Amino acid sequence: MITPDLESGVKMWHLVKNHDKMVSEIYLTRLLATKGTLQKFVDDLFETIFSTAHRGSALPLAIKYMFDFLDEQADKHGIHDPHVRHTWKSNCLPLRFWVNMIKNPQFVFDIHKNSITDACLSVVAQTFMDSCSTSEHRLGKDSPSNKLLYAKDIPSYKNWVERYYSDIGKMPAISDQDMNAYLAEQSRMHMNEFNTMSALSEIFSYVGKYSEEVSFALLQAHWDGRGQRMKTTLHASM
């Protein structure tokens, strides 16, 4: 602590023994041990995500169709920078979907995510995001531990991502007819897996709780005629 004295110009120093170094060394040792235990599972996860045919699972047609669409748009607008195309694909699938699943497994599984689990998953998610990036990450001794932890692994993960995008690009194109047929088949296969009446009941419960706010928002859409019709339907349903 420093207490300046403006009149005398004297500064009082209070020395405190620093234990941070010892604590950080213990923390780092445990962190590395935990990483070693989880390494195989993280590798398996990344390998599964960034593979077009991993363990017999074929790549969903929607991914090929979407990536081809992004390449077509890049060609249409004269965008030939491979980093831009890479970023588009990363933003629309790995970073928008998979990062969310990694950080929030409770969206898929009936589990409780405590604060410790959340912190661990955040490190994995950050590593995943860094692996999808095209920029170089310059790290130093002052870099956060979660960045340093997987610094040596990220180059390999980046190669997996680039190979994944390249492999998809080499696959045969999906026609609009095949894509429509695929979507229709998926709808048919899963049509009985969701209880639409239960979902509708939850929506009505929400609308009933915030009926004034919803009604006001609907009135704001009166300019195209839909707002009043939706408000009338809402009141009729309630």
TrEMBL record:
Domain of life of the native organism: Eukaryota
UniProt-listed InterPro entries: Plexin, Plexin_cytoplasmic_RasGAP_dom, Rho_GTPase_activation_prot
Biological process according to GO: regulation of cell migration
Gene Ontology cellular-component terms listed: plasma membrane; semaphorin receptor complex
Record domain Plexin cytoplasmic RasGAP: where: 4-214
Molecular function GO terms recorded: semaphorin receptor activity
Pfam families: Plexin_cytopl (PF08337)
Protein name as it appears in the record: Plexin cytoplasmic RasGAP domain-containing protein
